[in-house]
Amino acid sequence: MRKLVLFMHISLDGFSTDSNGSMDWIKVDEEMFDYAGQRTKESDIALYGRGTFKLMESYWPTAADSPKSTKHDIEHSVWYNKVDKILASRTWKEPIPSKTRVLGDNLVSEIKKLKKQDGKDIIMFGSPTLAQSMIRENLIDDYWLFINPILLGRGTTIFKGLESKIMLKLMLNKTFSSGVVCLHYTLKADN
């Protein structure tokens, strides 16, 4: 059975974007790219919200083609072009890129079906609004939270609207030289 895995950068006070919707405060470097790249290889489906998908589509399909491409650019571009993608959107009007399926109103039931199938994991990068709905439905199996050493005070939180407790178990933590801490949690069995 597949797991739904969330990769999310958040501030120390729990925000995934600042009050302007910006993520320019997120610290990323080759050390983190290498670490996350290993986990990415364990997935064969990527799940994105509309905004994150637009960002991904604007860069990753051709990121490996530039002479200035980093090792990470090349590796992630190859993965991105190979992986099946699910775009969660009720309003997408643009042409649908190859290896992409758009899901709107039936997203939750389709994710539940996919999770029951054999295969690698479903990975979700960012997409804070989508993450909120997946968390509320208790569909996320693994949380990989990259805690950035900053307090934003306001912004978008992925934990908005929880109506009941979701118990988690810490599987590992890793501190990067940038000061970012990755916390990997799984659902506790008694949820």
Could you tell me the radius of gyration in angstroms? 16 Å
> What topology, given as strand order, has the largest sheet?
4-3-2-5-1-6-8-7
**What would you call the structural class?**
alpha/beta
Count of discrete alpha- or pi-helical segments spanning 4 or more residues: 5
Total beta-strand segments: 8
Helix content: 25-40%
CATH architecture call: 3-Layer(aba) Sandwich
Predict the CATH topology.
Dihydrofolate Reductase, subunit A
Instruction: Give the terminus-to-terminus CA distance.
Output: 18 Å
CATH superfamily: Dihydrofolate Reductase, subunit A
Strand content: 25-35%
CATH class: Alpha Beta
**Largest beta-sheet characterization:** 8 strands, mixed
Specify the overall morphology: globular
Describe this structure in words.
The chain has 191 residues and is α/β, with parallel strands linked by helices. The chain has a single domain (4-187), classed as Dihydrofolate Reductase, subunit A (3-Layer(aba) Sandwich), CATH 3.40.430. Helix content is 27%, strand content 27%. The protein contains five helices and eight strands; from the N terminus they run E-H-E-H-H-E-E-H-E-H-E-E-E. Strands 4-3-2-5-1-6-8-7 form an eight-stranded mixed beta sheet, with helices on both faces. Helix 1 packs parallel to helix 3. The model has no long low-confidence stretch (mean pLDDT 93).
